[in-house]
User: Fold this.
Amino acid sequence: MAAVTLTNVVKRFGVFEVVHGANIDIADGEFVVFVGPSGCGKSTLLRMIAGLEDISGGKIAIGGKVMNDVEPADRGIAMVFQSYALYPHMTVEQNLSFGLRMNGNPKADTDRRVKRAAEILRIDELMQRRPKQLSGGQRQRVAIGRAIVREPQVFLFDEPLSNLDAELRVQMRVEISRLHKELGVTMIYVTHDQTEAMTLADRIVVLKAGNVEQIGAPLDLYDDPANRFVAGFIGSPKMNFLSAKVVETSNSAATVELVNHGGARLRKPLCDAFPAIGAEVVLGVRPEHFFEAGEGDCDIPVKADVAEHLGSVSYVYANAGAEELIVEREASRQRASGDHFTVSIKAERALLFDKKGARIR
Amino acid sequence: MRTQNATAYRFLTPYLLIFAIFWIWPIISSFLISFQATRTVPWRFAPAFNWGRLIGDPAFYNALKNTLLILVIQVPVMIALAIVMAVLLNSPLLKARGLYRFAFFAPVVVGEVAYSAVFRLMFSLDFGIVNKLLESVGLEKIDWFSNVTPAMAVIMIAVTWRWAGYNAIIILAGLQSIPEDVYEAATLDRVSKLKQFFYITLPLLKPVIVFCAVLSIIGTMQLFTEPFLITERGGPGGGTETLGLLLYRQGFRSLNFGYASAVAYTMAGLAIAITLVQLWLTREPK
Assistant:
């Protein structure tokens, strides 16, 4: 087991800098998820930790030892690839044992490790099959098994579930979580799926365009995002953003007017920064934080456009002025398309962002 | 739908007619001819005449031996060379890759007569660059075309030069279809580059290599140009005569169409048999 530390890590491809000085501390035994949209540099960061990409600047340390110039095989890591990267001409057993056999590991030890991995992942009965004779979920298990037999200090997962169907993804998510508890080793997991990040991680690293936007526990990121990007990325359906203008400030709050909602006003208590009167701001409200009319501090009328009924909850895609809102409703309060209704916003559940997207607290 | 099919077939008819007359019929006809004595007028049906002669003909066995010798030595060497060339072409360290790819493929598009003439010149006893090079390093020059072994070597070198690049391009396509992350997984498993080549690249290239080998076997069984032009009609003294050349000599110089047809069918049968054995030996385990 080992801690992983990234200090000012930079990656350049030619003249293009794709990771701009990442600083991340991952504790021993922690499950950390790198999450962000395509092209944000999360896989590149993971590959730099693995040693599959050179580091253009900064330091990467595993277990306290700087790994910048250490060969991938000597870093004490194992990686599970998005495409599984199984050896197609080998059986499951050969796939699991290949690395150990090639390095002259004693046969008894190789057999022990392969048997243990097969037991952990429940793939004992698949050992003589080839990858093409396996389902997507089984292939993923074998790929994880290949990582387990290396007995690494750090597991790296590069979008391992993205090729699986929704049901299998949920199942494998649980398996990976169970595996982390069972093995107790450090795991770094890359995904663009915020649900995976929220359900698996001890801590999430949110990346955007090569920058670390925020690091924190899943619910901390959900409840207290550092900026509009994190607020929009974490949470499904995503947070609603309503254009607003500051119309009044005091030493403990700012009153904003929702510009697309007939001048509806909300007084938002603040503690740090106080925007200038007239400043354009954005009010963020999660779909589940819209209340019934009169229950909150500010009511806005909306018209249901499309309603998705998921059973326990419904998501109403509503038009409100020039803005589209997503409103979560419990099943008992389902709305049909075309319904006019009023939602209410509570100041304590709304977040305020400046024009550039930074949080105003 | 039926009307559409009829229209399609009407458009296809000219091609199918030409295909039937100039392709299918000659195949059937030559098979029938192989059972006829064609040196008599009129031709007469004599099943044992050509096939019986084939079994006891020293010229046939000589041509068969030469063809198989070239096949056994030249094809594996050429395929091995093609694999090495493909791996080099695939290397990210190689600069001007497109130029090398063109250079390796270029021999295929060079006219057969032109390249044969150049090879005759290169291996000429007194003026050839090969002998000049041998002499320059203190070795004796070789009379390449007067002795059977060097003459066979020249044919094998020529055929390898002409077709290795062609096969390398096919193998390169196979190489590029192997996912990069398989190698990355092996790198993380501390598997050396050499072991990656033998344990990952070669097994995954097997279908492409078998394809190249089958094409090469068929090509070698039909080998004609090189012994005809480079070693002057299978010289010295028939020492480099191949089955293709024997067929030509019997069919178009002696006008013995029946015997030539029997040789042609033997060549085709051997090519099919060798290919089947090879496919069986390299089959995918279930």
User: Anything to note?
Assistant: Chain B touches chain A at residues 179, 181-182, 184-192, 195, 199-200, 203-204, 206 (CB under 8 Å). Chain B has one domain: 57-281. Chain B has twelve helices and two strands.
